[in-house]
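Anyone? Bumping this.
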Amino acid sequence: MKKNTYISLPVIKRLPRYYRFLGVLRKNGIEKISSNELSRRMGLTASQIRQDLNCFGGFGQQGYGYNIEQLYNEIGKILGVDKNTPTILIGAGNLGRAIASHMSFSERGFDLIGVFDKNEALAGQMIKGIPIRHISGLYNFCKDNSPVVAVLCIPEDSAKEIVEQLVNLNVKGIWNFTHYNISADFPSLSVENVHLSDSLMTLSYQLNNKD
Amino acid sequence: MKKNTYISLPVIKRLPRYYRFLGVLRKNGIEKISSNELSRRMGLTASQIRQDLNCFGGFGQQGYGYNIEQLYNEIGKILGVDKNTPTILIGAGNLGRAIASHMSFSERGFDLIGVFDKNEALAGQMIKGIPIRHISGLYNFCKDNSPVVAVLCIPEDSAKEIVEQLVNLNVKGIWNFTHYNISADFPSLSVENVHLSDSLMTLSYQLNNKD
């Protein structure tokens, strides 16, 4: 597959959406789709879709459309959902537990292998078959199991210290639910932020500024 | 305060970040800040910051910088965090409970007044002092309490039916944790989507496509 050298962030951010939509079509037994039909369903223009998919070498055939199974698998590969990246979760409060229980890590290319919290009272409790460990065991666990990704569900004030430790332990990516600006201090890490309160405030703005 | 008539979505999406950063500065007792310093801390260019804040009439003074308290309060007002919008949560599974327990709704302009689930076994349990109600009571509750916003933490396949019901009950905004594409079917609703699995797949892409 021919890849363009530079793919812009907005295109990358749309790939999971393509993957989801194609996954639904595939589940419904649909075999092919035109860019026009895909555009109607996704609320993007057809030319946008053709442009996006061209970034990755293009999977369409003129007059036939896209083969859904093939496109789904290719985008999955590009996204790395066929990987099995060892992942730990740090912070087993309400949010951490919900993320661990709710999210299908394995379907997205991640393998959740450890859960840590600083609260000793939680140690030994199980989430999805994984025991919660006290944070003091992080160093040894990482030396033994080499996690590549950490999910951060901890208060912002302890985030910097933890990330520093994780970087020294060779963690390469963070799924960040804190407000700590990781990329500013650790530009080499792959970081994906989920700022729930920003999203809620954006909704508030929309509600309060309807025409 | 002079407002431009059209403010682009990317600017709006940055406002909560300004609000957060200014909140931290304010908490630390800092009274003013230049756009250069704000840009260094936020990882945006100074001219971007000046442009963004100009959309809302501008709060800076040449040679002085921005008054943090004033800017914080003004952006808060623009975002509507001083509002008290009646809000319900639908879906009290792992994710719904975590959102209800974890999120400071009142600090973002929302008042969580009701929680619903289709699981009868949950009815009567409390989340943050709010009893979980069976979904069959949604109609009467909305007639009596007129919620304006609903947080959706339910499976995608029941989402369309619920949103239809909510629209008929005068709900105006949805904080959507499902993958159901609400805006396609209900363009008049204010919708803010949180697609956790898309975010996780974007992280996967980043990890697997480092230069």
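Late reply, but here is one note on the structure posted above: Residues 9-27 of chain B form the longest helix (19 residues).
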